[in-house]
Amino acid sequence: MSKLVGAVAVAGGGIAGIQSAIDLANSGLKVYLIEKGTSIGGKMAQLDKTFPTLDCSMCTLSPKLAEVSRHPNIELLTYSEITGIEGEAGDFTVKVKKKATYVDQDKCTACEICVSKCPAKVPNEYNEDQGVRKAIYLAFPQAVPRVFTIDAQHCLYLTKGKCGNCAKFCENDAINYEDKDEEVEINVGSVILSPGFTPFDASQLEQFRLDHPNVITSLQFERQLSSSGPYEGHVTLADGSHPNRIAWIQCVGSRSPEIGRGNCSSVCCMYATKEAMVAMEHDSELETTIFNIDVRAFGKGFEEFYQKAKNEKGIRFIRSRPSGVEVDPLTNQLSLKYEVEGDGINQEEFDMVVLSIGLTPSESSKQLAEISNVEIDDLGFIQTRIDSPMETSRPGIFVCGAVQAPKDIPDTVADASGAASKASSLLASERGTLITEKEYPPEKAIGDDIRTGVVVCRCGINIGSIVDVPDVVEYVKTLPGVAFAKEEVYACSSDSLEGISDMVREHDLNRVVVASCTPRTHEPLFQETLMEAGLNPYLFELANIREHCSWVHQKEKEKATKKAKDIIRMSTARVNLTQPLYTDKVEFNKDALVLGGGVAGMTAAIDIADKGFHVTLVEKGPELGGLLRTYTTLQDGRRTEDIIEPMIQKVVSHDTITVFTDTELVEQEGAVGNFTGKLKGIDVDEEIVFGVAVIATGANELKPDGYFSYGEYSNIVTQSELEQMMDTGVDAKNVVFIQCAGGRNDDRPYCSRACCTVAMKNAIQLKESDPGRNVYILYRDIRTFGKWEELYTKARELGVVFMRYTEDQEPEVTDRTVSVIDFLLGMNFEIDYDLLVLSAPMVTPETNETLAPLFKVPLDANKFFLEAHIKLRPVEFATDGVFLCGTAQAPKLVDEAVSQASAAASRATTILSKDYLETIGNISVVDPELCIGCGRCTLVCPFNAPELKEIVVETEEIIYTTKKSEINATVCKGCGSCAAECPTGAITPRHFTGPQIMAVIKAYVEGI
Amino acid sequence: MAETEWEPKIVAFCCNWCSYGGADTAGMGRFQQPASTRVIRVMCSGRIDPLHVFNAFLEGADAVLVTGCHLGDCHYVNGNEKTEVRYQFLEEMLQELGLESDRLHLNWISASEGERFANFIRDVTAKVKELGPSPLKPAGVS
Ligand code: FES
Predict the structure, then answer these.
(1) A756 and A628 in one domain?
(2) If you measure from the C-alpha of residue B40 to the centroid of ligand 1, how many angstroms do you get, rounded to a whole number?
């Protein structure tokens, strides 16, 4: 490679692109995040809640949006599209078309006056065309960037030369009707494709009657559930009333080879279950029914979620997919016809029908693939391989998220970090070359005198028309500590920001309060202004007199004015007690420890080592390869050794990887950047020091003793045992598979995710090697999710016989026969078998229970390791510097383990690539004089920041040892839980101190 | 001031990530609410020390609202679970001091639940107005 450029273009600003961008930017690379729409956030921003924990989607997403918008190494190009990619890995030239927004991004303060004056109404695409927006608009309230855009297709001025209201009313002169599209060229070393998916267009399938107002798509339903949606969170029929009976039809646009959509969309069963559950939380009388082919609850916690939905919440799951929606021509009533197992056809009426639409590649993503010159598969998804799921056919261009295959949020996030890992390995030598750090003037000394400056913002008419701003300013001047106060029309406009700097200098101020809008969006902006003026950013307070005052008391101007005064008085009381806070830079150890030498552990080790860091790879068994060694073939037909052996070669020949086999970690202490541990094994007894750790200790196939006579007869084997047999040829005419053998029961309530796909692959091989052989698969649900559905289709085509059994009527096994009640036909069958194969679930190794407490990380109910957040932090623990991947986290397929392993490597690299570990300013600190060493803080902190340390106290009379808590500044996040727990008041969160909070309370209650 | 115009003083502790955002969303959605409440922002509901709540009553607050993210949504993993535990203790203590139960509330509000925030303020304000000034209010505080 001749040249390497330390920058990456990420195409697509959904959760995938966001995660890739954050990882890369935090690893010292410059990122251009290119998004077609006006805001980043993607489909996740449209979701109400996320399965299976029913977390609020926007709540977990918006901190990420904010992080992107503030990140100095990320340049956001929204409303932009890639039009060309030239060059080669390491040095690409990417052409980007930036569409005209007709609004000057630097002048717009998002005051929304233009919106209230715009007469043009356009279907609101954020709400899936339910309700309207204006022609000048913000995609959604939390949109990033927070800049308005004129939709040129609908703007009356731009289309007909009429109106011009927005320009007339904009007080900042931000409207520019002359704006033109712009072509820019950026030079990057790598490109990541993350354009996501488009929901299947169900209007193509007329039989589903999307033209009927009460037939809606699942995404429309999602918007209805959202409190920021078209009906403020109330599910609503066309006539304005609320439905009593809702049906979901699954697999609309999925598992339908006849229309070219043969894949399963992986997420619909769970989102439909979630939607039904949330809707029932809103209305407990609601009756919900989900019509499905199989319920594909295959991910972590999904099966448990499904069982809860079915057994506790009363959601009806009917295993039949209606072929269409019936509409009574006279009454317009909706009904569905469906098959009842062994009992003919039933017809039932519903008030609302929700179509669970599948995930498909969008036209624009196909175009992007073409521009990028990467291969796509028959379904239009970008083609990758099992052992390199983030690599496209063109070197240097990587892929992540649902454009590669339909997948859910955590898999997308893992992919995204994984793709970032690949790009950052390629550009490892260029880390830090293209990023800039902002320089601020030195901070001035603040002295003991409190001199607070207050700026009261009118926010155009937003505050100014309700709150009497001049009166407030006069009042504020009388408050203790206030040396200067003034009003501004828009405090956040660039000239006002300069004005704040000038004000600080001219009046020699040492504290600042801005009374305007919410700190959640504007605090960082003003803090930066303070830094530019030579003041510490913590000497600032935002008084929220817009969202919390003028906007919610629009009819009570006097009360609003009084409240604004209260709020500012409270804010000055607080700011007067703030002190400058500083971050600390700490040197740290940059080696990584990877536990587990399977595919996940090896991939993580290689990915970290490729970035120039030293890795110690520890395997408890005698050789590398892990669980995959017990299998012989992959779903794509390759041999497992074809991927294991090259990986082992790479590991052992890598300069910076040290491998220990037959070895275990037996002791571990410390925190991120400074862990110490002890390795013990045959001939090994070593102390090690490391900065980060990856837990990739894997899982095993259950020996299903006691299930279906396993262990009693020699012709009953597990899937992995079958694979070993198949190598020498299987001599059996009648082969029966039983799925979920030992899984999805009271002992192991989870679904093991991989077994259906593995069974399909083996059934196909058995059939192909001897077409005359009979193969039966007895199953509860077939869960060949995503693209693997094609194996299920193929198995059926080859004549594999499928019979569904239920958990209450399990097949009975004797030495030669299996008897099963086929659920669909309602009949009992006796099958003679020569070979019985059990699909047993993956189970955790016992060592999890010793490893978890060693690292102080949690296990889930099934003893798999429990990640920090099931959606957005799938490969890390809440404890900083400790990561997880592969089947240690949950059962999964090889490509998923590889993607997670690269993701863990990427997350680890965001730490390792720093020069120093930097603490945040607003952490908590312990006063050792007051600490009594009770250790309650160590119990409440989820990050393991406080630690009891033994110290020697010397007084004049005696010398004794005692325990005192000490908070590790590099780990503390400043939440303040420990302070509320401390019985002696020894702990202070530095920016939310007890005296500050008390002062605010006092300032409020005292009144004017 | 006429009796009917008495406006209670309600302190609402909100966590930065969810309930404060809920109050913001109420603003963005223009969900009108009585001007009875002042928000005190903390990073996590887990920061709210029972002492702060006692103090608010002793200074003269008529009601105190402890709010945070829904369980499972806490930005710091589980701060709100600890809040819940401390809240139970608080409730008992305040009851012993003779405070009516409608003066202290625990509520989980997500950043998107603007309407829920506004309704909550409306409900609590109505109840507290019925109760009148807090019995713990020091003399001279309105
Ligand atoms: S951050 Fe909201 S409760 Fe912890």
Answers:
(1) no
(2) 14
